[in-house]
């Protein structure tokens, strides 16, 4: 039987605020067993880009990443956010290592082809080196993954953090019994976004389709759920979407095939 591993993805709103981030790192530190942390930071990138006079543009939940924006996201995700998290975890006794996809060649991607929209320097994941990650994990090292990948020709590419989490969970499913947890600022997938008590306990592909048509599920939640179903199809054992401060409670929305 495979050993258990939890992949936690934490989004931009939690990461941006020191108090919520510290709470998350506390909860993450006390999780037992093998674990990986994947972080976003989209809000921080938007804020810092704006301070530098660079406007941000999102299309279908993805950032249009021109050359200047790529510099900003590299600094923010690969530097500021990733290293603060690693230092925070070290302070809590977790031996974390921060990685972009370029480090150890852990995530290769291809620049998204231009169809209707030119996303610029945005990468679609081609391959995650599950073995390299599993080796680190077996040495009791906790990978902390930034939403940056590379194309093998010297170019970094911006990649959605939910996708990094989904693809990493899939690659690790060959070596571990993987639970993928998307945590954010709400209690789960909600029937009414303004009512925190309207958590949908179980979400299946049919219900997902229905909720998208009804406008109940929209925006950033759509790619999160698409990544969730794709992870289950590829051998990830469990996917949960829940409140950041509830990662070791039995709560939130369970995603089922
Ligand atoms: N039915 C829903 N339940 C909860 N959140 C939803 C729902 N539909 C859309 N959302 C939106 O999805 C967002 C989460 O997606 P995203 O912004 O990509 O988060 P993250 O910060 O985790 O990357 C929530 O902040 C919320 O505004
Ligand atoms: C291509 C693309 O859109 N990349 C994302 C990566 C960060 C991210 O996904 O952050 P959250 O999880 O906080 O949303 C972006 O630049 O916003």
From TrEMBL:
Protein family membership: Belongs to the acetylglutamate kinase family. ArgB subfamily.
Predominant location category: cytoplasm
Annotated EC: 2.7.2.8
Catalysed reactions listed for this entry: N-acetyl-L-glutamate + ATP = N-acetyl-L-glutamyl 5-phosphate + ADP
Positions that bind substrate: 41-42, 63, 158
Database matches in HAMAP family: ArgB
Site, Transition state stabilizer: residue positions: 9, 224
Keyword ATP-binding on entry: yes
Top class in the EC scheme: transferase
Function: Catalyzes the ATP-dependent phosphorylation of N-acetyl-L-glutamate.
GO cellular component entries: cytoplasm
Protein known as: Acetylglutamate kinase
GO BP field: L-arginine biosynthetic process via ornithine
